[in-house]
């Protein structure tokens, strides 16, 4: 049974990684997950300086998922390079680093700092609010997305994966903008903007009012957008959005994803990523599939 997949020239032992922001940098999950058994560990977003994140409360359960308004709290690139990367290397994990920022120079500073680090892919989180453009996310404007992709590619030593926001009218337009900017791969979907109101307090549940919705409720949207992007754009895709089981992962791969991220599932089952991998293997054995690549984008 062949599980190896290739993204932008990098080969991973299997197609399962973790969704940024749901797995830290792996240390807190080691009791439950052998990090080297995963295709890769995708780290929590890292910025050029420490970010405190949004005020609390910033998490809320919803039907079929959760809302988060963490605000990309992180210790900054200095701590990340000193503490997290060496630990992942020690554990023999493949590494995908999620990069966030408020301006293009913010992103470039992080990408340049990572140039000499043993990192496999850079996942650029363009759902961050662009403070130079009145707060709209880089990933919600095709021209802004093209520009940040192009600038990141100028300085990146590792392949660049642009993480697309689903909060747009046409996801294929965004994919084509990233492609035009020189992206090596895409990841999608990020969270869908949502809101929850406490009817007894007559107030918002989240201090930020809105948050990003994730979990199984958004999987059909993820499947649809992955399929649309695969048909419109030749770049390889890391798929995410509501993956709870191996069957969910297979569904995203059939839509067009070469690799799949497990996110919200990690919060209620710390072994979720390994169980998804085991579920993929069981499906392949049941269906007598010898090579995982047979199912990638198999639906027309």
Descriptive overview:
Strand 1 (5-7) and strand 2 form a beta hairpin. With 300 residues, this protein is of the alpha/beta class. It has a single domain (5-54, 76-195, 211-294), classed as Aldolase class I (TIM Barrel, Alpha-Beta Barrel). The chain has helices at residues 77-90, 104-113, 142-155, 171-180, 219-232, 246-255, 265-268, 272-286; strands spanning 5-7, 10-12, 16-18, 41-42, 59-62, 65-68, 95-99, 121-125, 160-163, 185-188, 192-195, 197-198, 203-204, 210-214, 237-239, 259-262. The chain is built from eight helices and 16 strands. The strands form four sheets. An eight-stranded parallel β-sheet has the order 3-16-15-10-9-8-7-4.
Largest sheet entry: 8 strands, parallel
Q: Structural class from helices and strands?
A: alpha/beta
Strand content: 15-25%
CATH class: Alpha Beta
Q: Name the CATH superfamily classification.
A: Aldolase class I
In short:
The protein has one domain (5-54, 76-195, 211-294): TIM Barrel (Alpha-Beta Barrel), CATH 3.20.20.70.
Q: Any chance you could write out the topology, listing elements then pairs?
A:
Layout: E1 5-7, E2 10-12, E3 16-18, E4 41-42, E5 59-62, E6 65-68, H1 77-90, E7 95-99, H2 104-113, E8 121-125, H3 142-155, E9 160-163, H4 171-180, E10 185-188, E11 192-195, E12 197-198, E13 203-204, E14 210-214, H5 219-232, E15 237-239, H6 246-255, E16 259-262, H7 265-268, H8 272-286
Parallel strand pairs: 3-16, 4-7, 7-8, 8-9, 9-10, 10-15, 15-16
Antiparallel strand pairs: 1-2, 5-6, 6-14, 11-14, 12-13
Helix pairs in contact: 2-3, 3-4, 4-5, 5-6, 6-8
């Amino acid at each position: 049974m062949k599980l190896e997949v290739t993204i932008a020239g990098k080969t991973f032992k299997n197609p399962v990684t973790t969704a940024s922001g749901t797995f830290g940098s792996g240390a807190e999950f080691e009791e439950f997950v052998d990090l080297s058994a995963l295709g890769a560990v995708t780290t929590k977003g890292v910025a050029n300086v420490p970010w405190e994140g949004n005020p609390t409360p910033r998490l809320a359960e919803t039907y079929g998922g959760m809302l988060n308004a963490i605000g990309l709290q992180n210790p900054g690139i200095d701590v990340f390079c000193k503490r997290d990367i060496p630990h992942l290397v020690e554990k023999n994990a493949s590494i995908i680093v999620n990069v966030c920022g408020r301006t293009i120079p913010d992103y470039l500073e992080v990408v340049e700092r990572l140039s000499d680090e043993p990192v496999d892919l850079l996942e650029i989180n363009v759902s961050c609010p662009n403070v130079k453009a009145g707060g709209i996310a880089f990933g919600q404007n095709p021209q802004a997305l093209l520009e940040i992709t192009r600038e990141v590619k100028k300085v990146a030593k590792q392949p660049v994966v642009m993480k697309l926001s689903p909060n747009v009218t046409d996801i294929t337009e965004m994919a084509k903008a990233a492609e035009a900017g020189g992206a090596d791969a895409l990841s999608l979907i990020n969270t869908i903007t949502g809101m929850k109101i406490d009817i007894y307090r007559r107030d918002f549940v989240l201090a930020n009012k809105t948050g990003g919705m994730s979990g199984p409720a958004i999987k059909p949207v993820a499947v649809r957008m992955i399929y649309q992007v695969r048909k419109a754009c030749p770049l390889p895709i890391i798929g995410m959005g509501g993956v709870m089981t191996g069957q969910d992962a297979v569904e995203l791969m059939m839509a067009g994803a070469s690799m799949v991220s497990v996110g919200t599932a990690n919060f209620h089952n710390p072994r979720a990523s390994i169980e998804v991998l085991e579920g993929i293997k069981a499906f392949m054995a049941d269906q007598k599939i010898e090579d995982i690549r047979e199912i990638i984008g198999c639906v027309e």
